[in-house]
Amino acid sequence: MKKQMDHIGIAVRQLDESIQFHIEVLGGKLIDRYRSEAKGVESEVAIIDIDGYRTELLCPTNNTTSPIARFIKQKGKGVHHIAYKVDNLPEAIQQLKEQGIRVLEDTLRTNKHGRRLIYLNPADTEGTIIEYCDYPNETVS
């Protein structure tokens, strides 16, 4: 199955400062900013576009239960995950399982932009958090 880079997620402590850096220093454009209190997310997210490439800035909203807060506590701020766009998420998940790669079933969800996503088990990816995603409602022009 074809895969392509979709975005990089970066865990941050100060969202406004990170947005400012990505806009003023890197020349990015703020596409969206929203808060998600969904279980397993609990973060404020800013989507930055830099010449067609997306970065998601992830700032925890709950320092007790947010996975981003846990990540920052364990590893510090910085790259949290790399996301790959696939043609069909359910098929990609099946292929992963056939290859012996586990997915974190409780992370399967659709975000506010219609992106379906799931995270692969970092124990099977050399410790890197990898997201697979698709956009089932995206129209092809």
From TrEMBL:
Pfam families per the UniProt record, alphabetical: Glyoxalase_4 (PF13669)
Transmembrane segments: none
Example GO BP: L-methylmalonyl-CoA metabolic process
InterPro entries: Glyas_Bleomycin-R_OHBP_Dase (IPR029068), MeMalonyl-CoA_epimerase (IPR017515), MMCE/EMCE_epimerase (IPR051785), VOC_core (IPR037523)
Residues annotated as domain VOC: 4-135
UniProt-listed SUPFAM superfamilies: Glyoxalase/Bleomycin resistance protein/Dihydroxybiphenyl dioxygenase
Gene Ontology molecular function: any one: metal ion binding
PROSITE patterns: VOC
Keyword entries, A-Z: Metal-binding
Protein's UniProt keywords contain Electron transport: no
PANTHER family recorded: METHYLMALONYL-COA EPIMERASE, METHYLMALONYL-COA EPIMERASE, MITOCHONDRIAL
Family: Belongs to the methylmalonyl-CoA epimerase family.
Name listed for the protein in its UniProt record: VOC family protein
Taxonomic lineage: Bacteria, Bacillati, Bacillota, Bacilli, Bacillales
